[in-house]
Amino acid sequence: RDQLIVLGASGASAYKPADRAALAPTVDQHLIHLPGTRASELAVVVDLLANCLTPERAARTRLAVASVYALYLPPFKPTDLLTLPRHLAATGAFVDPWTGGVTRFLMRPVMAGRLLLGNLDRYVTRWRMGAVEQEIDRAAARAILIQQVAEDSGNPGADPEAAFTQLAQALERWRSRGGQVVLVQTPVAGEVLRAVPAMAMWPRSERVLAARHGVAAIDLVHSADDSEFRDGFHARDSASMLWTERLMRLLDQKQDQ
Question: What is the model's pTM?
Fold first, then answer.
């Protein structure tokens, strides 16, 4: 069967596999979301899929990369990869006896190191930004997110175009294996876009860069009302299905083109 993998940072969790399966029951639905991750780490995951899936399986796999401006900004924090092997196994990435065995072996020290280095920082970040569903002051969570993105955007090491290029090159390698890909520019609250001009300008630049690399893009940046967000990137649980319906409808349209 064909499969759809949604890959991204914490914002990708809005697109739940069960919700997508209800809308597209003939396609296997998977989600790989790594909270706090950056583009360089997503590129590694894309390469893992490209190297581990058989060409036959890759040809029946569509990758939807959930993209947001913060993905391309420093600091590049360690991410908790504890669940990654389980996600990859579900997509068939460990079918090949050689690459599968090697990948499983290599993932063990990687997982342990990432857990020790990154877990505490990741959960503190998620708590501060209200990325975990709870009764929170959403205005305060949004203010924290705006401050954080503005600081990261002003970091001297910030080079969104170079970070995007690194991810795009991995996507090119994925496509060379027969895989399909679409870049999904995920929703951002209007208040956040107004507060961080660089973030408001990025989606257009990103679409130009994506086209340069032959990657199709879906623009959902302005598709959600501010009331649908926990903060400025993450969907409230009550809005998750609505976001998923929008995504699946546009993915179908993009498939038909």
Answer: 0.81
